[in-house]
Specification:
Length: about 525
């Protein structure tokens, strides 16, 4: 007799673990991009490296070059300098193609980038390989140690469940509860994908309670998943430790202004209010305009459904001593990050202290085998940082800025607002093409720095507003890892996420413009009378 098949229980949280979600197969354009990505990357490298005319580089006016590039120019002469620039451009173009098309895993692209830059003499072996030991890399590693502490003790899951059970009494209060949960988790967990994995089973059960399960979609489910995707990313933008790309942007800006570090508190004061405003705007736009919910969709469709979340919370038992210690360690780390201006301890050193404490025998909470460090992501970051080091060595960003503005006819006397609109618009809408926040950071932040220096503006006036747009990666499933993960829930289509995402990209750009004229000007980042609006 055949075994009895148990009916699918839409309220069982175990069904929604990441490893149980169906794998999304690439189709259509995505599939062809993956197939053609490698040959296109190889072809672009060969065409640029062997076919680009070096004459325009051999006639460079060295007075406009950065100090590193100028030294190389003087040591090797025009021909040597131009060869390095052409090699860097060839590697950069090929890397962009591979990262965008995902023809090979992104960590493998990074390894290819590193060895190619060494073999083409763009950068020395020492400079290329030591990017794996960069202080931002260390901060990423240590942040994963701290995040693993919260996951292993299940205190992050407990907080999310408790908040929903305590305050999620209606459709609106559920959405507001997830806003609070996402913001709080962003302060503690720097990996946006980890936050998505923690919250996914919870909001999937809630979606089922409100009538959106594996058999049908509704606007409650669309809103719940897309709002969480938006909040996971935008709340990360409120903290410099919210993602590795934020940390990289802070490092690049700090280096350009001659500062040892970008202070945690400075980023928080500027970015957090903007992130919160965007999150609330996104909630209103999504639930009231793009995917308005009917009165029926606002009511639970499964009686007693929320009781299942209470049961999940009850299974965790009473608050444990190790959970209290985990929260205490992280609160101390956060306090030291926020007050870095006063004690001078860097974010990386603070994370070191927290991670060491968390790993200490008898005192700590986790063992090394409990720590979930995604080394494939770190290898990808190492390749991206190596690419950034090559851009700095060859001064390619400055050359691109000069050439680009010359082509556009924008010379001395160009109004600040023109530059601001070009850079912020390019940064935010580039997310439609790239899956990598780190890559976009490496492209646009150095360009913003070079633009500010070329036109005599403060580096912070252009580079910081550009950096504040890093986390806008939610419009399409391939724009970020959380976007790819949540698309697997099957609660929305490509057109659904694009409609909401593109509208929020436009609103995000408008918000950036308004903040440049008001709040960022009040904080002293942008000059007075930027756009003449106020």
């Amino acid at each position: 007799m055949a075994d009895k098949v148990e009916p699918f229980d839409p309220l069982d949280m175990s069904h929604y673990r990441v490893e149980k979600l169906k794998v999304r197969q690439k189709k259509g354009v995505e599939r062809w991009m993956a197939i053609l990505g490698m040959p296109l990357a190889i072809l672009s490298f060969l065409v640029i490296y062997f076919g680009l005319d070096v004459a325009f580089l051999q006639n460079i006016d060295p007075s406009g070059l950065g100090s590193t590039a100028l030294k190389r120019f003087e040591e090797l002469g025009p021909e040597g300098f131009s060869r390095a620039n052409i090699a860097m451009l060839a590697v950069f173009a090929a890397a962009i193609i591979l990262w965008v098309t995902e023809a090979v895993p992104n960590y493998l692209t990074s390894l290819i980038v590193i060895i190619t830059m060494v073999l083409t003499n763009v950068i020395s072996e020492v400079d290329a390989y030591h990017q794996l030991g960069h202080r931002v890399m260390w901060l990423n590693i240590l942040s994963f140690v701290l995040a693993s502490m919260l996951v292993k003790t299940q205190v992050a899951k407990r907080f999310a469940l408790w908040f929903i059970v305590r305050f999620g009494k209606s459709a609106s209060s559920i959405f507001l509860s997830f806003i609070v949960i996402n913001v709080v988790l962003s302060a503690f967990i720097s990996a946006t994908t980890a936050k998505a994995a923690i919250l996914l089973p919870i909001f999937m059960v809630i979606a089922a309670v409100y009538g959106a399960d594996g058999s049908k979609r509704n606007n409650f489910g669309r809103n719940l998943v897309l709002q969480n995707l938006f909040q996971i990313n935008i709340s990360a933008g409120g903290f410099i430790t919210g993602s590795g790309a934020n940390l990289l942007a802070g490092m690049l800006i700090a280096g350009a202004i001659g500062s040892p570090d970008f202070l945690y508190g400075d980023w928080l004061v500027a970015a957090f209010p903007i992130s919160m405003a965007l999150i609330f705007i996104g909630w209103i736009v999504g639930t009231r305009w793009i995917f308005p919910m009917t009165p029926e969709e606002r009511r639970p469709q499964i009686e007693g459904g929320m009781e299942r979340l209470k049961q999940e919370l009850h299974k965790l038992g009473p608050l444990k001593w190790e959970e209290i210690r985990a929260v205490a360690i992280f609160l101390v780390v956060l306090a030291l990050w926020v007050t870095d201006r006063y004690h001078g301890i860097s974010k990386t050193a603070t994370a070191f202290l927290g991670a060491v404490t968390a790993l200490l025998p008898r005192v700590g909470i986790v063992k090394w085998n409990d720590v979930d460090i995604p080394w494939h992501l770190l290898l990808f970051s190492a390749g991206a940082y190596t690419l950034g080091a090559g851009l700095k060595t060859t001064d390619l960003a400055s050359l691109a800025v000069d050439a680009g503005f010359d082509k556009l006819g924008l010379g001395e006397g160009t109004p600040f607002w023109v530059l601001y609109l070009l850079l912020t618009g390019g940064m935010i809408f580039s997310s439609l093409l790239s899956q990598s926040k780190t890559m976009r950071t490496l492209v646009f932040v150095p360009i913003a720095i070079g633009t500010a220096q070329r036109f005599g503006f403060s580096v912070l006036s252009l580079a910081f507003p550009v950096a504040l747009l890093i986390e806008h990666v939610y419009a399409l499933p391939f724009n970020s890892k959380p976007a790819a993960l949540l698309y697997l829930t099957d609660h929305y289509s490509w057109s659904d996420t694009f409609k909401f995402g593109f509208v929020m990209l436009v609103i995000g750009w408008i918000m950036s413009i308004l903040m440049g004229e008001t709040y960022l000007r009040f904080l002293g980042y942008t000059p007075d009378g930027v756009f003449g609006l106020f």
